[in-house]
Amino acid sequence: MPRSLRTDRMTPLAGPRASRRPLSAQRSRAAWLLLAPMLVTLAAVALWPLARTIWFSFTNADLNDLDATRFVGLDNYFGELGLFLNPNDTEGFWASDWGIAIANTLKFALASVLLETLFGLGVALLLNQEFKGRALVRAAVLVPWAIPTIVSAKMWGWMLHDQFGAINHLLLTAGLIQQPIAWTADPAYALWTVVAVDVWKTTPFMALLILAALQTLPKDCYEAARVDGVHPLRVFWYVTLPLIRPALVVAVVFRLLDALRVFDLIYVLTSNDASTISMSGFVRREMVEHGYMGYGSAASTVLFLVIGLATVLVMRLARDRRLEDAP
Amino acid sequence: MSTQRSRAASAAIYGLAALVTLVSVYPFLYALSTSLKTGSALFDPSLWPSGASLRNYASLLSDGEQPFPRHVLNSIGVSVAVVALSLALGVTAAYALGRVSFKGRGLLLGTILAVSMFPQVAVLAGMFELIRALGLYNRAAGLVLPYLIFTLPFTVWVLTTFMKQLPKELEEAAIMDGCGPLRIIGQVFMPLLWPALVSTGLLAFIAAWNEFLFALTFVLDNDERTVPVSISLISGASLYDIPWGKIMAASVLVTLPLIALVLVFQRKIVSGLTAGAVKG
Amino acid sequence: MARIDFRQVRKRYAPGLPLVIKDADIEVGSGEFCVFVGPSGCGKSTLLRMVAGLEDITSGDLLIGGQRVNDLPPAKRGVAMVFQSYALYPHMTVAENMAFGLRTLGADKAAIERKVRAAAEMLQLTPLLERLPKALSGGQRQRVAIGRAIVKEPRVFLFDEPLSNLDAALRAQTRLEIARLHRDLGSASMVYVTHDQVEAMTLADKIVLLHAGPLIEERGSVAQAGPPMALYHRPASRFVAEFIGSPRMNMLPARLLDAQAGHAEVELAGQRVRVAVDARHLERQADVQVGVRPEHVVVADEGEGAPLPASLLHVERLGDTSLLYVDAGPGLDALTVRVEGAAARAPGARLTLRLRAERLHLFDAAGLACRRTVELPT
Fold first, then answer.
1. Which residues does chain A have with pLDDT short of 50?
2. Domain locations in chain C?
3. Is there a domain that residue A23 lies in?
4. Is residue C57 a contact partner of residue C50, using CB atoms and an 8 Å limit?
5. Cβ of C112: how many Cβ atoms within 10 Å?
6. For C268-327, how does the pLDDT look when each residue is reduced to its tens digit (9 = 90+)?
7. Would you place residue C250 in the very low, low, confident or very high pLDDT band (cuts 50, 70, 90)?
8. Do β-strands C79-82 and C156-160 pair in parallel, antiparallel, or remain unpaired?
9. I need a surface site. Which of A79, C117, C165, C315 has the fewest CB within 10 A?
10. Which of B122, B148, B217 lies closest to A45 in CB terms?
């Protein structure tokens, strides 16, 4: 037997200082140590600024004169110049700047996500079929998503230009409109224009998610349905849709929470016009352009609470559902 | 999958496919075409640029007032830094969250994900204070801090999903071989994980590259700007003269590499996205 | 030095859940080849992983070499494990796979190379040292996994069902190699987990047969521990008797008539049968089971042992032996009888079975065996 493999050699054993804690506890401790750097960083860049912002919302901080900051309690929220129950809102809450911002944000979010889901579903169903050039179409569909938001805004801003834009030119030549429309400036169209551009940009994301879900579906259901001669629409409604519902719900909720934060598109396409401003746009305007750091912080805290509560609710529901499904 | 399709269905599918492709790709092609037009050709909305020239690009790259190449470098620098930090912090965190079961793990994961859902404006005031205190106001480097708010949770979430899928016996063999967690991550899991790192890094890079709000608010200095803000602020000779040709040129320059990256890494990106959403 | 002791070891996965290991008292001697075997759910893998340091012990002590190792991390225990799926590092060559553990410990490069080469020679892996795992066959990967364990020169080798992923022919061959390995590696103990009792019988110096299901709670985890032949010829319970040996031991319901120092007498199928066991602790008229292995039932019209008339149901000819399935009367399951050569009889034939006292086992109503008074030849 090879001499180099004597097996009576002792491997080093731990001395009397061996840990007295069970192995799983040792592993848990190591896990927390590994998590620490990330958690500390996250706390420093996210939780701390958030806390400070909420603090600012209770003060009258002004960017132009920060030293004069004083604690004002809930004035920014409910006081004379506050966000809600403001006695100066002569035409009612929804006509105030903040009210308009909230309305815009909600309209944008709901319309966008609805359309993205519908179109996304359509594109996903299309890409799920086999046809020549499918890979090409799939690559093409990724292009709007790859383009930076600002660039999209500029590109579409140019195509929607009232005088030289290609869209107006197309519609005029087709006889669908008589006058060129100021898509991004006219208050009647501006918000829906933004919705349209957002839908163009984000449909690929939804389509990809739904396609991934579609591709995990078992094929035998469909073959059985075909043998039974069931109409494809019924198959879609009664078989496909229920099966992709979980993934669909996740994607929709995710997108909805994301859409409530919209800023970039509206700012660049419509220059943050008062009629199209979103909640985020309102915050930035108040804080940066007017310098009302306290007031702006209050608005941002409201937005945070709205999204925060919605997120918590969703996660609760998701966790409960998962517990239901678990064996 | 149907093996026999009616003529009508085939026509519908190909028609739809053509429409989808057209709608997806046309705007970018139009931007490309516009970038090659100068002068009065800009007023012509046809796709083909008459009198195509690269004058817009030249003007863009040589502009002293608005140094576009400098802005590109700023963006690259910030994005790379953010991605590197996120991956470094995220990998070790993902090991802990994906492979060690400990009390509070689920809650922690949920909280981390929740952080990425923060509206950016919710931290605006506090972040402004922080950046100024660190002396990073008006510097591109200062953007790394706010960008971590969304890249870090995203990276942790996706990497955790990938970590969970690695085989248990491999890890146990490494434990038997005397590896601590760091060695396991570095020498055993990393080689298996690098495709995930690539797709996560790519997605984080794209997100950091595109960011607008913080870049607009925290960096005012012309030299320190990043690309999205730079493009939105491209201006012409007078206040009302919007140089669309130049803007489109900048857009094309910035977008081409991104489109190329996305097309080349299609599969990885899709798996990264779906790992986060569908399986998570 | 390489002794392993389980003392009253218990495990449950969480408070409130049932015990998966109960009161395990097991001793593996230095240099012994010990096989943990049992039906699925018996906790054999769990016990193995406890020795490895991959599972926590809820209560009780585990000692290796006389030292309590409950809270000691795996790398400090002097153990090496061969996994069921081999768990080779896919991005490392065979040589790197084998060297990894030693490199992690910080051993000298020259020493590592020496040991890797020696192990590769022993396992005929030398031509494969620069290959990646995906370029190896299942049997070759198996050997690399073993080689990875050998180079660490552990006190204890742990095998987790190493043959279950191999096909039948390879299994037999690898069994021989493992046996040879044990001989060559001298003083290292080997703990081997399998569900296959043939592997257990052929490889083990000692078998530890483990209970599963409700028996864990009733009787503790260990059903019986001892040399293979001890479990075969002196099973401590019905569970052991029926698990070890293939085909299974025949079980015949009977009633105890008389018990004396040297033997007991039972009523079986209307016959008075003598069994060479001490059943004095049982009540008269108690329900008992008589156990007899297929090869111990003699088919003969005349001769020693109580006669049992039966009719032949079915014959399976295996070439060297034949299995006869016979019906010995109402209330009895079909008996399996093993005879030499090719049986010439046909189904329906009438036979007389002979049950010799010293070949029979007696189990009480709870399944526990009565002490044998005549030892079976080993």
1. 1-18, 326-327
2. 4-242, 247-366
3. no
4. yes
5. 19
6. 888 899 999 998 898 889 899 999 999 999 888 888 888 888 999 999 998 899 999 999
7. very high
8. parallel
9. C165
10. B148
**What is the number of CB-based contacts under 8 A between chain A and chain C?**
70
Q: Does C105 touch chain B (CB under 8 A)?
A: yes
Domain C247-366 CATH class label: mainly beta
| DSSP letters spanning A308-321 | HHHHHHHHHHHHHH
My answer on whether omega of the bond before C247 falls inside 30° of 0, hence cis, is: yes
* Residue-level pLDDT at A138: 86
Domain ranges of chain B: 7-53, 73-279
**Domain containing residue A172: CATH number:** 1.10.3720.10
Mark yes or no for CB contact B278/A268 under 8 Å.
no
Q: Give the pLDDT confidence score for residue B220 in this predicted structure.
A: 86
**Number of domains within chain A:** 1
The helix/strand/coil state of A224 is: helix
Rounded to the nearest angstrom, the gap between the alpha carbon of residue C309 and the centroid of all alpha carbons in its chain is: 34
Supply the pTM of this predicted model.
0.81
Please list every residue in chain A whose beta carbon sits closer than 8 Å to the beta carbon of residue B151. Answer: none
Chain A residues close to C78, C-beta within 8 Å: 10-11, 13
DSSP C182-245: HHHTTT-EEEEEES-HHHHHHH-SEEEEE--THHHHHH-SEEEEE-HHHHHHS-SBHHHHHHSS
| Cβ contact A13–C77 (<8 Å) | yes
Pick the CATH number of B73-279 from 1.20.120.1730, 1.20.1250.20, 3.20.20.140, 1.10.3720.10: 1.10.3720.10
Q: Specify the fold of C4-242.
A: Rossmann fold (3.40.50)
Q: What is the extent of the structural domain holding A149? A: 112-286
Q: Does A225 touch chain B (CB under 8 A)?
A: no
